[in-house]
Design brief:
By secondary structure, the chain is α+β, with helices and mostly antiparallel strands. 26% of the residues lie in helices and 19% in strands. It is built from 11 helices and 10 strands. It has helices at 143-146, 165-174, 177-180, 185-196, 200-204, 221-230, 233-236, 241-250, 274-280, 286-289, 294-303, and strands at 2-3, 15-17, 20-25, 49-57, 62-67, 75-81, 92-94, 108-113, 118-125, 132-139. Helix 2 (165-174) crosses helix 4. The radius of gyration is 22 Å and the shape is globular.
Length: 305
């Protein structure tokens, strides 16, 4: 890794970089790039604040990956064609694109690179967050085709990827850290569940799926595996509020005889007919995770009669 920290706060002072891994910091940085409401709207935040700048010259033609996966704060990134201070819209923008794993709030883009073409990479934070991290850039590299390690074991020497191409691709789709940074113990745990069909946390947990707990997994094995395939964080790190909401909507935990009438609006999630929930909640998970509101009742009236 090469460390570039400090003087690239302004776009006019962008650091030149190529393929590789580079450490960065945005602590104390100002914002001098343009607001991007048409391209970078993330949850209402259209600016890339506390930004720093890099000028990337592509060494090949093809898909280039620019990844902030593994950084220690909520990043945001924009990429522009050319290395002048931007006056046109970015060709790519990213907020949360490192998968559903631990690094879900980190940024990652792929661009169609042209050999010798320059691209301005702008790194900042969501809602002005600042922190430290790493930027990895690669062009024309297929980690899952080249790696050799055991997918179900932590990799050695901090290498990304693993030797089973299909399992590697599946795991990295959920957690880009595993193919951008290293195949660590979390990646091995994710691969175990995603590639073998069963997360170990679902076999050992004694905690209910409908309640937040500090450990990973929950005691309903089928529900646990269903949720964790969609959100590996729940079986690798902890069963948090998001996992509970996912369990409620995906496993219909809030549905059944003790719930409210499906055809009437009520404050609690779910309704008294599991078959109706099975129709409504896949299209509108809010109905089974948060509140059975007027829209849910209307949908039930149309689809469950």
């Amino acid at each position: 890794q090469i460390e570039f920290v400090g003087s690239n706060d302004l776009c006019a002072n962008a650091f030149p970089i190529g393929n590789g891994s580079f450490v960065f910091s945005t602590f104390g940085m100002t914002t001098d790039g343009p607001d991007e409401p048409s391209s970078c709207d993330s949850f209402g935040d259209t600016q890339v604040q506390s930004d720093i700048w890099y000028c990337y010259t592509a060494p090949c033609r093809g898909e280039a990956i620019i990844s902030l996966c593994g950084s220690d704060y909520d990043t945001k990134m924009a990429v522009y064609s050319g290395c002048d201070c931007p006056t046109a819209d970015p060709i790519a923008c990213s907020d949360d694109d490192c998968g559903t794993g631990v690094g879900a709030v980190d940024s990652r883009v792929t661009i169609s690179a042209v050999e010798g073409q320059q691209y301005m990479v702008r790194i900042g934070g969501f809602l002005g967050e600042q922190g430290g991290g790493r930027i990895l850039i690669s062009c024309g590299v297929d980690v899952c085709a080249d790696a050799t390690g055991d997918c179900l074991a932590e990799g050695g020497l901090g290498e990304p990827g693993c030797g089973d191409g299909a399992c590697c691709d599946t795991t990295c789709e959920a957690d880009r850290y595993c193919c951008d940074v290293e195949w660590d113990s979390s990646c091995a745990s994710e691969a175990e569940g995603l590639c073998d069909g069963s997360f170990s946390a679902c076999e050992t947990s004694t905690d209910t799926c409908g309640s937040v707990n500090s450990t990973s997994g929950c005691s309903n094995t089928n529900c646990c595996n269903t949720v964790c395939v969609a959100d590996t964080f729940c079986c690798v790190t902890s069963w948090d509020e998001t996992c509970v909401d996912e369990a409620n909507s995906m496993c219909l935990l809030t549905c059944g005889g003790r719930s409210g009438d499906c055809f009437s609006e009520h404050e609690d999630p779910g309704c008294n007919s599991i078959s109706c929930c099975e129709i409504i909640c896949p299209d509108d998970p809010f109905c089974c995770s948060t509140t059975w509101d007027a829209d849910c009742a209307a949908a039930a009236g149309e689809l469950c009669q």
